UniProtKB/TrEMBL annotation, chain A:
Coiled coil: none annotated. Pathway: Protein modification; protein ubiquitination. It is found in: Nucleus. This is F-box domain-containing protein. Residues 3-41 form the COI1 F-box domain. SUPFAM superfamilies: RNI-like (SSF52047). It comes from Ensete ventricosum. Residues 61-107 form the Transport inhibitor response domain. InterPro entries: COI1_F-box (IPR041567), Leu-rich_rpt_Cys-con_subtyp (IPR006553), LRR_dom_sf (IPR032675), Transp_inhibit (IPR041101).
TrEMBL record, chain B:
Belongs to the Aux/IAA family. Pfam families: AUX_IAA (PF02309). It comes from Ensete ventricosum. Its main location: nucleus. GO terms for biological process: auxin-activated signaling pathway; regulation of DNA-templated transcription. GO terms for cellular component: nucleus. Residues 103-185 form the PB1 domain. PANTHER family: AUXIN-RESPONSIVE PROTEIN IAA17 (PTHR31734), AUXIN-RESPONSIVE PROTEIN IAA24 (PTHR31734:SF8). This is Auxin-responsive protein. PROSITE patterns: PB1.
Length: 580, 194
């Protein structure tokens, strides 16, 4: 193969879509490394502390799209202190210096400031797309910079970020010459947005296909917007409360009727049952429906709505849909691939309206189901076994029984056999979250059968070190392992330290590992970044046991990262990250 | 701070304290120092790891015939559980607050009464208070048929349910209207319950 001219190798390599495949290509030989390096357009950095930004930029000078992920996944659940890190600044600065041709930036769980957004907006003349997911640290002032200076912006997608509200002027900062928008999502903004500026913006962007509004946009505005943008494919409604006898309501029905291209609906923040009826005409075309932020819609109305959605492929709902509602989903949505059922009672007082019955119904009615996130009150081994038999195509299976360590309520047994059935049947399983009462046995099954598993989340499970060892020994493709409140200690942590070099990251909190164990690991594996997050005032560092305030985070590291990036502050009251 | 689990002997400490006042007289306002443990956390009442293991071992007994509620502190107090993104939690909290401001008014009807009443469920802390308030409200209509009645409610699904079966919060979130049933129907229904 080395006799092929570079152009040919490049042409072949271009067909490779996944980052993993391109990474593999680059390790074959120096020539191929160079070819990949100079032709790589899309770069994915799964952990922002694994490699220095400068290194990435130097290696891939023709980079057009950069994706960076920051905080560990458990940061979503407040297990990572707010000042832990994950700063976008060094990445934007490095890219500004080394890759001025950058067109797209996607960040997840990172801290990005208004200054960073300002730098971004003036450093990349061809910048087209900004996607921020679960980020924080910026305000609407930063958005104003993007709107003002990013000529030719196609996509501004803000998903579930914490954004400080400094007023509604930012939207008006899109100049009259801006006509290029294809996707605009500001659903997570808490404040007012200038509705008339929005209407004018939509009117002058003929290519707009995806628009997600926030709570402040009234239905009257939605009507005008839909009138101007009948080619919308993906819509997130704003406020959705109207009197169903009003003129506005009738216009709304007409507006929806005219949107023949609409395939995806979300929003519905304060939707009342009547208003949902306006949506009935287009239900038959929908492939994606997200009602998970509409707690006011009760089961009967939800069920009625979903009953019209024959083509639905992705459904996100609240558990108030109930088992009965899920039966209707099962009989209607034969194309369903992804289902997420969230609890409407977010503080987990433990009572939800869905049980194993709903899940079993879905599994028998929707054979194409491959992705599941299911918060429920209880689960049985029998149900899981049935689900495993009905749906062998799961790639993502996340089950959260709200009460920790809850056994099968019928047999009072742990749920080992049920999850065992899932991993045995679903040969393509890549992501798994387990819950309920579980012994080491379930981990034996996972290690034995979950060959393609890449990410595993464990909480309140297991009996001994053996559990963790089964997983580390067995799952060859494991990349991310996150564990909380399990009786796994130093023996498990240190059993197979070489394994961690094949993984992206390990998280352990409220387990039985000790500081000594972590130090030992760091000493054995100098190339790993072994870090203790200490939420205390620092005085308990001398303790041998890691208490609840200590968390172990471990990640692969390709270049040594200097301490000034690691330590976020010398102030003892602030989170201390100690690199061992 | 030493690393061991230490409980300060409060009485012994008090005895050695130098204070003004006659010996034997206790200062009621004085607070004894709290016992120190290594596992005190900012989240309330998380059990120490040792007791957690004991809990787990105890719970392994399958013959135990149904598990009692977890000895972990109420689930709401376990940090980061259930695993819901804080963005989602915060959104719901904001929506809930908005609803709370509005109050939770439901109609109350009573068999035989000429008109209905409306009450704000959020004013009451539990079923006892609710019953008393309703009794008070409909006092004037208690006729010669005697005071046998059952308080029922219509829930989210439109079903008529007996008040008192489910936890209070669950009731208030699902109750659409109340109906006081009187007479023979009520007595029959109540016969089998507590």
């Amino acid at each position: 193969m080395t006799y092929f001219p570079e152009e040919v190798v490049e042409h072949i390599v271009d067909f490779l879509g996944s980052h993993g495949d391109r990474n593999a290509v680059s390790t074959v030989c120096k020539a191929w490394y160079q070819v990949d390096r100079l032709s790589r357009r899309s770069v994915f950095v799964g952990n922002c502390y694994a490699i220095r930004p400068e290194r990435v930029v130097t290696r891939f000078p023709e980079m057009k799209s950069l994706t960076v992920k920051g905080k560990p996944h458990f940061a979503d659940f407040n297990l990572v202190p707010y000042d832990w890190g994950g700063f976008a600044q060094p990445w934007i600065e490095a890219a500004a210096r080394g890759c001025p041709g950058l067109e797209e930036l996607r960040l997840k769980r990172m801290v990005i400031t208004d200054d960073d957004l300002e730098l971004l907006s003036c450093s990349f003349p061809n910048f087209k797309s900004l996607v921020l997911v679960s980020c924080e640290g910026f305000s609407t002032d930063g958005l104003a910079e993007i709107a003002t200076y990013c000529r030719g912006l196609r996509e501004l997608d803000l998903q579930e970020n914490e954004v400080e509200d400094h007023g509604h002027q930012w939207l008006s900062c899109f100049p009259d010459s801006c006509t290029s928008l294809v996707s605009l999502n500001f659903a997570c903004l808490k404040g007012e947005v200038n509705a008339s500026a929005l209407e004018r913006l939509v009117a002058r962007c003929p290519n707009l296909r995806s628009l997600k509004l926030n709570h402040s946009i009234p239905v009257e505005s939605l009507n005008k917007i839909l009138a101007r943008a009948p080619h919308l494919v993906d819509l997130g409604t704003g406020s959705f409360t109207i009197d169903n006898r009003s003129e506005t309501y009738h216009r709304l029905i007409n507006s929806f009727f005219r949107c023949k291209s609409l395939r995806s609906l979300s929003g519905f923040w304060d939707a009342s049952p009547f208003c949902l009826q306006a949506v009935y005409p287009i239900c038959a075309n929908l492939t994606v429906l997200n009602l998970s932020y509409a707690p006011a819609i009760q089961s009967a109305d939800l069920t009625k709505l979903v009953g019209f959605c024959f083509k639905l492929q992705k459904l996100w709902v609240l558990d108030c849909i109930g088992d009965k509602g899920l039966v209707v989903v099962a009989s209607t949505c034969k194309e369903l691939q992804e289902l997420r059922v969230f609890p409407s009672d977010v503080y987990g007082a433990g009572i939800t309206a869905v049980t194993e019955e709903g899940l079993v119904a879905i599994s028998s009615g929707c054979p194409k189901l491959n992705s599941l996130l299911y918060f429920c009150y209880q689960m049985t081994n029998a149900a899981l076994t049935t689900v495993a038999k009905n749906c062998p195509h799961f790639t993502r299976f996340r089950l959260c029984i709200l009460e920790p360590e809850k056994p099968d309520p019928v047999t009072n047994q742990p749920l080992d056999e049920g999850f065992g059935a899932i991993v045995r049947s679903c040969k393509n399983l890549r992501r798994l979250s387990v819950s309920g009462l579980l012994t080491d046995q379930v981990f034996l099954y996972i290690g034995m059968y979950a060959e393609r598993l890449e990410m595993l989340s464990i909480a309140f499970a297991g009996d001994s070190d053996k559990g963790m060892v089964y997983v580390l020994n067995g799952c060859k493709n494991l990349r991310k392992l996150e564990i909380r409140d399990c009786p796994f200690g130093d023996a498990a942590l240190l059993k197979d330290v070489a394994k961690y070099e094949t993984m992206r990251s390990l998280w352990m909190s409220s387990c039985d590992v000790t500081l000594g164990g972590c130090k030992s690991l760091a000493a054995k594996m100098p190339r790993l970044n072994v870090e203790i997050i200490n939420e205390n005032d620092g005085t308990s560092e001398s303790k041998e046991n890691l208490s609840d305030q200590h968390k172990l985070v471990l990640c692969q590291q390709f270049t040594s990262v200097s301490n000034d990036i690691m330590f976020t502050s010398n102030d003892p009251d602030v989170c201390r990250r100690v690199r061992l | 701070m030493d690393g061991g689990v230490g409980y300060v002997d409060v009485d012994a400490l008090k005895a050695t304290e130098l204070r003004l006042g006659l010996p034997g007289s206790d200062e009621p306002s004085e607070k004894p120092p709290p016992p120190t443990t290594t596992t005190t956390t900012t989240t309330a009442a998380r059990p120490s790891k040792r007791s957690l293991d004991e809990d787990r071992a105890a719970r392994r007994e399958p013959s135990e015939g149904g598990r009692a509620t977890s000895t972990r502190a109420t689930k709401a107090q376990v940090v980061g559980w259930p695993p819901i993104r804080s963005y989602r939690k915060n959104s719901f909290q904001a929506m809930k607050t908005e609803a709370e401001v509005a109050g939770l008014y439901v109609k109350v009807s009573m068999d035989g009464a000429p008109y209905l009443r409306k009450i704000d469920l959020e004013v009451y802390k539990g079923y006892k208070e609710l019953r008393e308030a309703l009794k008070d409200m409909f006092k004037c209509f208690e006729g010669c048929k005697g005071s046998e009645y059952a308080i029922t409610y219509e829930d989210k699904d439109g079903d008529l349910m007996l008040v008192g079966d489910v936890p209070w919060e669950m009731f208030t979130s699902s109750c659409k209207k109340l109906r006081i049933i009187r007479g023979a129907e009520a007595i029959r229904g109540l016969g089998s319950s507590q």
